[in-house]
Amino acid sequence: MISLLTLAIGLSTVPQDPPKLTEMAGYLIVPHEQVDRSFNAGFSMYVSAWPLLETYPGSDFQSGLFGTWMFPQFDGESPKDHYTDIEGGLGWWRDTRFATKTPKFIMGGVTLNFAEWANGPGAGKGRDWKNPTGLYGVAQLSPWVIWPPDGLNLKQGTRGELFGYGYLPLPLTEPKASTAGKAVPTSNNCWTLFLNTANFKGPVAFFTPYFWSKASAENEKLAGLFLDSRPSEPNKAVQMETQHIPAMVAKDRNGVTYARVAPTHFPNAANENAPLIHQITAYSKSALWSQVDRWFGGDKVVPGAIPASASSTHTFKGGGYSTWQIYLPGGDRQSAPEVDWASYATPIAIDRHTYGIQWKRELLSKSADPAVLTLPEYYRLTKIGDAKQRWVAIKPSDVPSETGLIEAKFPAPKRTKEPYVTPLELSSSWKKPGPVAGPFKRNLGDGSEITYYWYRFADQPALLNADLSAKEREDLQKRVEKIHRNWKKDRNYLPPNTTGKLASIDPALIVKPPKAFEYGYVPIVTRQAWQTSPSRK
């Protein structure tokens, strides 16, 4: 006869329903002080770059690290139903094909209500070259950095270093009275990405003005409402947007719900608070535009460094909060329970220009990597007082075994084998007039191989699709040759960081122009695929 004790022990190990897959998502909100609205000619910032998850979980994973949204500035209220901005940054996206746990960077320019977006040279919304919605929106400017269509790679192993970037307008083109044959103007704000990293500094690529004004040619009422002509709003939101971190939930025999989240990391600075955001700076037009405009008109060479008098740096006072939620399968996502983030994380101002988080380390999970902290992996759905239910962090030993959460495995990563390939037709802008040198190949740290060619700057595909006449492209060519001769990759353009160490981009992305092509030529990637051969230089 089975004893009651034996029966009780047996019941305690009877498995309930297997854990159900779900996700954790939400925002980390970063408050900061505003600056004067006259600093409306771009911004820069330093943001920490680190592996958010312990292992890359597959193509469902989508999360940015800390970043911002740069919208056009208007004197009054912004036009209704008019979403357009630059909102890229560091992170992982569902369409990232060659992802690792190290983040990549994309430019993320968005035209009217996401009709098109551009992520970098040859990269944008979808991969349909017959309907290139944003694929020609960014022109390569640097002769020293290759831009892969999958995103700008950081050096593998980056773990908390600061990635410096920003956008400033340059007068590379001239204003136009007509756009795509229509009597609507295109102005000449060439919003240019500047980087400040350990192994590269300076301008990399820019959004063509036509990328923004193209919508005006289709609807004349939109003329003058985009970033080709508008200044930038200096007081921007700074947040970390997370759309999917793998999670699973299960109930014990009493109906209590528990959750497990894929191991999630944040930078660790031993006994100090690691900087997450540093030196958010807004610029006036005198930062670069005015000087460069005079230089292109025949005045003295502009070295490119931004004077301190042309900038204003936002300050931090601490504070901020999380909206991270763990969704219940089949439940209402809008009212999903939030994670009790504040129980183990306190946002602080490390100094007036640096933002970080103070952690209650006794509640965090153990991490084998000293460069990162691991957030709590296990949670119990708990109602605290009269408040709504929240996910409260618990130790692994507090998770009932019958939930199956401890032993459960997250699915293996899903990856696409499809390469990025640009048009092969001889009549396309990739072939006519075509490159001047190549092909060349390089193996990147993400496991991909890129094929690239050298194009004369004005003959790159993005500019052949930028609504520019032959003369306008030649004038642009002359201006860029001045930049190539005088703006080198080893000196500061953005104000340098005053704390932390700088991150590096993948060293394989840094190239030296071939002989006779040092000035006025740029590298353009035509293919990116998984590596099938030994590493090439």
In the predicted model, the low-confidence regions spanning at least 5 consecutive residues are: 1-12
The helix content is under 10%
| Rg, nearest Å | 25 Å
Give the percentage of residues in beta strands. Answer: 25-35%
Return the average pLDDT rounded to an integer.
94
Q: Give the overall shape.
A: globular
How large is the count of helical segments? 5
Number of strands: 31
What structural class results from the helix and strand content?
A: mainly beta
What gap, in angstroms, lies between the N and C termini? 75 Å
Largest sheet: 12 strands, mixed
Give the gist of this structure.
This protein has helices at 4-12, 209-218, 289-296, 461-464, 470-486, and strands at residues 20-30, 43-49, 62-68, 85-86, 89-92, 104-106, 109-110, 117-120, 123-124, 138-140, 152-153, 161-170, 190-196, 201-207, 238-251, 257-261, 265-267, 277-283, 311-313, 321-322, 325-326, 338-339, 345-351, 354-359, 372-374, 378-383, 389-394, 420-421, 437-443, 448-456, 521-530. It is mostly beta strands and 537 residues long.
Structure in words:
The protein has 537 residues and is mainly beta. It is built from 5 helices and 31 strands. The strands form 5 sheets. Strands 1, 3, 5, 6, 11, 15, 16, 20, 21, 22, 26 and 27 form a 12-stranded mixed beta sheet that branches. Strands 2, 10, 12, 13, 14, 18, 19, 23 and 24 form a 9-stranded antiparallel beta sheet that branches. The protein has a 4-stranded antiparallel beta sheet with strand order 4-7-8-9, with no helix packed on it. It is globular and about 75 Å long. The N terminus is likely disordered.
